[in-house]
Amino acid sequence: MIVYGDASCAEDAATLVAQIRANLAGCFAAPTLDNLRALLIRVGQFEQAVCDAPADAMPQGGAAMITMLVARAFYHAWLAADTHATPDGACITTLLQRAEHTLDNHDMPNMSVTVKVPEGFAFYALFPDHYILAARRWLRDHANVPSRVAAVIGVRSIGTTLAAVVAAVLMEAGWHVARMTVRPTGHPFERQADLGDARFSAGAWALVVDEGPGMSGSSMAAVAA
Fold this sequence. Notes:
alpha/beta, three-stranded parallel β-sheet, 8 helices, 13% strand
């Protein structure tokens, strides 16, 4: 059976923040790869909801920072699991504390936001871990390039989380990374992408991150263009 899903739901912003706090508490108590993965997916949904809300109604910078901090913590835990080493608990805790501090200072208005269910995670057995492997392979293929500057652009919804994972891998390898997300609009076969006022360094590599090209590939093509 093939399942296609494009589910979304309205959630109270304060409730969403409370759920993230509960996930954070679980990760502080047991910073396992599974717990960190669940937290990463949840904060990615939080950032997606914030970015899809009206720009003047919801502050966006803090949400993006939280996702990146959790993505870096997740990557540290993944590296330890991959090499059968002991996780760097101090580093992971510090990153999670910074995420919690950012959340504490995130001025969240009392409003409803639209949270999309990430299809790949929910229906297609996609894991953030797969994008760690893809990003590490990309790094190996670009080990000798003169410019170690990259723009990582996630295609919302699921690209919010996946782009954070890719950016975390590059950052830990010493790359200078600018990350953002975008939601292409328009006809499904003729999507358009507006990157707003985003400016990237000359010579930067650009990585467009999503769960797949879809039926037409127009969303990823629009962002690339």
